[in-house]
Amino acid sequence: MIHRISLALILAVLCSTAARADIIDIAWNEQGRFERRVSVAPGKFAEVCGKLARADSVAWRFDASGPLNFNIHYHEGKDVRYPERRDALAGASGRLQVALDQDYCWMWTNKSGQAVDLNVLLTR
What we know:
Order of helices and strands: HEEEEEEE
CATH superfamily: GOLD domain
CATH class: Mainly Beta
Shape: globular
Oligomer: single chain
Number of helices: 1
Structural class: mainly beta
Distance between the termini: 56 Å
CATH architecture: Sandwich
Number of domains: 1
Strand content: over 45%
């Protein structure tokens, strides 16, 4: 009986871990850079978020092993605003000119049937 409960508990933990998406807080290093490598599971997303101030500027770049839907967004009440939004990209770069003091998120969604490796670089 204990063996069955332990196995059920292990399976539940593994399933919940596989089902989660990655939401990552931006932690700038001393040079004003943030780098991250993640694997985006099929049907899941990875999201990198952080507080930015008006007049901040962030250069961003990513490359991936397959196509991902990509956006940069922030929330105003119940509304979501998208300074950048593109679909089916394996890489892109640009610069975000921050207009409002806000929490901004870079988000990648994997609509494919296999995991996609993602490399992200943000620079202040």
